[in-house]
Prior knowledge:
The protein is mainly alpha-helical.
Amino acid sequence: xxxxxxxxxxxxMILVISGTLPVPGQGxxxxxxxxxxxxxxxxxxxxxPKVNPSEACCRVVKRSDIPCACGRITASVQQMIDMDKxxxxxxxxxxxxxxxxxxxxxxxx
Length: 109
């Protein structure tokens, strides 16, 4: 079931971030979206502990436009991922989200 939920999270986020599932008024984001899902989904999904991401995840984070991706997070995606974990992963990887950045309905403290 873990693989199934990871695949669902990955597919949903790929569709949202890539622009296949439209978010009004927003284009597509730059970066390795498939890589983010493959390498980082396990570190941001619900439930589970907050853990430091792998080097592979960090390499992909560093190549991706995370603030743009944040702007494409829908309520349904936000139910599957833990936004505190997203903030932790980006900070750990050296690409922290600025305070006040909005990711879906979540605002980075």
